[in-house]
Amino acid sequence: MDKFYSYTDFLRAINQTSQHDHAEKLLNEIYLDLFLQRLQREQRLEALRNLIDEALEARDESLFKEYADEYVALQAAE
């Protein structure tokens, strides 16, 4: 899902009438990728919250720090 979509390519596709369907499909693909990325990110955040809780219960400071750092990084990327 690490696709790169060029805004210029998208506009070029829209401006070509024969490419109108291609532009619409490209836009749909972009939205789908964004949706899936968001869903994966939310699932990872939930998993990290659970892992952080488990690390706290186990009093494992190193795991807690590892999971908390990843959680903070994901939050900051939003």
3D structure, described in words:
With 78 residues, the protein is mainly alpha-helical. The chain is rod-shaped and about 60 Å long. The model has no long low-confidence stretch (mean pLDDT 85).
Instruction: Find the structural class using helix and strand composition.
Output: mainly alpha
Number of domains: 1
Ends: how far apart?
17 Å
Shape: rod-shaped
Could you list the spans in which at least 5 consecutive residues all have pLDDT below 50? Answer: none
State the helicity in percent bands: over 70%
Number of strands: 0
Residue share in β-strands: under 5%
Specify Rg, calculated over alpha carbons.
19 Å
Strand count, sense and barrel status of the largest sheet are: none
SSE succession: HHH
Count of helices? 3
